[in-house]
Design a protein that fits this description.
Strand content: 15-25%
Number of domains: 2
Structural class: alpha/beta
Number of strands: 18
Strand order of the largest sheet: 8-7-4-12-15-18
Number of helices: 12
CATH class of the largest domain: Alpha Beta
CATH superfamily of the largest domain: von Willebrand factor, type A domain
Radius of gyration: 34 Å
CATH topology of the largest domain: Rossmann fold
Distance between the termini: 91 Å
């Protein structure tokens, strides 16, 4: 009996040990299942958080621009953009969203940043490092007292730096409103006077160079545009004017488009050159009948810009002289010439400075403002002997004797026609001498279209984004004599920001083509801009704000 009792106790002990072992094994099994399940849950949440932080970094990078109030990097906008994307992606329990940029110093600066931002600014990049933490609740591992784990994810987003080339009309018409009139020159519009005059035109307490209107208004809006869009030290600005710039009131300059400033990082240099632009200031008419436009004074009082060589020939008593009246040296609206110089700027040939050389990863943007149609051009080296003053077909010289629709100097009556400089010659009869000749119909507008095509397709893949603005009545006037070959519609943004559409005016076929269609035949993937019409300078601020917002959405694409 004693042995039997011992056996019974032994079996009971073994059963107790088995229960303990089974319980321990069950806990281990739960731990193993929990580890596998919760690890999978953590990995899923990590992947979700990683994708969300990647998106948040891109969103934050899109805000890499100056605060309009302080001019410093707008960090609050970056943080808000990052948090918004995390919430959109339903990332809960997010905390400690931290942002670092290349503006930071020390250990907080992302490793990818340029180590020499001031000495080698062309290597600067708009990098935004976003770090976010999130608590992930666990399911099975709670049995072991592990309720949650903390996930930390870091991602770097990058916005494109901006290379902006501003093409600004400085032709004589940019002084036509100095005396208050909306159109046409009068004694108060003398560019030699308003270029030199100073006034507190933007009411900031400082005297600004030049009071020519609408030139001064354009400068003030352009200054605000650059200041709100460009983050100096990362973005660059170049300035090209339609005509050469006079140093002082005594200087006479040529009508050639000019690179006033190649691509430049320095804020002071950019703002200084914008603030000191001048309206075209040709020589004073002296009866010499030399080629080129001159300023006409009658009894010492300024009258208007004048094509002395043409007027002298057209008023001559000899019909043979009248028949040769050639205006080609006088018009100064060389839109194509500015576009050609923009190609030089983007390609790095406008300056030997290493900091002005091309950046393949930047967003190449051009903003063109013109106050009238293209009526001047720059001949290629191969054509300079035949067309010393640019492409100006003989059938536009005596336009007032031509049937409707009448051409204008150096451009025909059909602004939508596209021709090549190599197109066949056509027959032309001089309406005064009745001489027959073979002429080229390649005109100033055709040249501008060609230069626009070359500029828009200059950058591989995305092309050069071009925005155009037409300022003033000369741009929006619809041609009265005859309809153009194709129709064209343009958006009009009024002073309140309301957008409407209407038929294109005389100069708008070209400006619309440059912004919306240029280069498509060469590079179908061009990221185009848009064309805007401003009847007066009061409309410019809204237009520039729209363009700035449009550019801001492109820098993260």
């Amino acid at each position: 009996m004693k042995q039997s009792s011992e056996k019974i106790r032994s079996r009971r002990s073994e059963r107790g040990q088995a229960i303990v072992l089974i319980a321990a094994g069950f806990i281990g099994l739960v731990a193993m299942v929990g580890l596998v399940t919760d690890t999978g849950l953590v990995l899923i949440e990590y992947g979700k958080l990683k994708r969300s932080v990647d998106s948040a970094a891109v969103a934050a990078a899109q805000e890499f621009r100056p605060d309009p109030d302080t001019g410093n990097l707008n960090m609050d906008a970056m943080v808000n953009a990052a948090r918004s994307f995390l919430l959109i992606n339903q990332i809960e329990n997010v905390r400690d969203v931290v942002i670092h940029t290349c503006e930071d110093t020390g250990e907080d600066r992302p490793d990818l940043c340029n180590p020499d931002p001031e000495g080698n600014p062309i290597a600067n990049r708009k990098l935004v490092e976003v770090t976010a933490k999130s608590d992930v609740g666990l399911a099975f591992l709670r049995v072991l007292g592990i309720n949650s784990v903390e996930l930390t994810v870091t991602s770097i987003g990058e916005a494109s730096t901006i290379d902006l080339v501003l093409l600004i009309d400085t032709s004589g018409s940019m002084a036509y409103e100095t005396s208050g009139a909306l159109n046409g020159a009068d004694p108060g519009d003398d560019p030699r006077i308003c270029n030199a005059a100073q006034a507190d035109s933007d009411l900031d307490g400082d005297l600004d160079p030049g009071t020519c209107q609408p030139m001064r208004a354009v400068q003030n809006v352009a200054l605000d545009f650059v200041d709100s869009l460009i983050y100096f030290g990362y973005d660059r600005v170049s300035i090209i004017t339609m005509t050469q710039q006079a140093a002082d009131i005594s200087d006479a300059v040529e009508r050639d488009p000019t690179v006033v400033l190649p691509l430049e990082f320095d804020e002071n240099s950019i703002l200084f050159h914008l603030d000191n632009l001048k309206v075209f200031q040709p020589r004073i008419c002296d009866g010499s009948n030399l080629p080129g436009e001159c300023l006409q004074y009658i009894s010492g009082t300024y009258n208007k810009p004048y094509c002395e060589i043409y007027e002298s020939a057209i008023g001559h008593s000899d019909p043979g002289v009248r028949a040769t009246a050639d205006p080609s040296s006088c018009p100064s609206s060389n839109i194509g010439g500015m576009l050609a110089l923009a190609q030089n700027v983007f390609s790095g040939t406008a300056s030997p400075d290493p900091n002005s050389q091309p950046r393949a990863d930047s967003l190449w943007v051009t903003g063109l403002l013109a106050s009238g149609p293209a009526n001047a051009s720059t001949p290629s080296p191969a054509d300079v002997d035949d067309y010393p003053y640019g492409y100006c077909p003989q059938n536009t010289w005596l336009f007032f004797l031509m049937p409707d629709p009448k051409p204008k100097w150096c451009r025909d009556a059909y602004p939508s026609n596209e021709r090549s400089a190599a197109s066949p010659l056509v027959s032309y009869e001089n309406p005064i001498s009745h001489e027959l000749m073979d002429i080229s119909e390649y005109d100033a507008e055709d040249y501008a279209r060609d230069m626009a095509d070359g500029l828009a397709a200059l950058k591989t893949r995305t092309g050069v984004t071009i925005y155009t603005i037409g300022l003033g009545e000369n741009v929006g006037t619809i041609q009265a004599n005859g309809s153009p070959a194709v129709t064209c519609e343009v958006e009009v943004v009024d002073a309140m920001g309301v957008v409407s559409t209407r038929q294109c005016g005389e100069a708008e076929y070209l400006l619309s083509y440059i912004a919306r269609d240029a280069g498509d035949a060469w590079l179908p993937t061009i990221n185009h801009g848009d064309y805007f019409y401003a009847p007066t300078d009061a409309y410019l601020r809204n237009i520039f704000e729209i363009i700035a917002q449009n550019i801001a959405t492109k820098i993260s694409q």
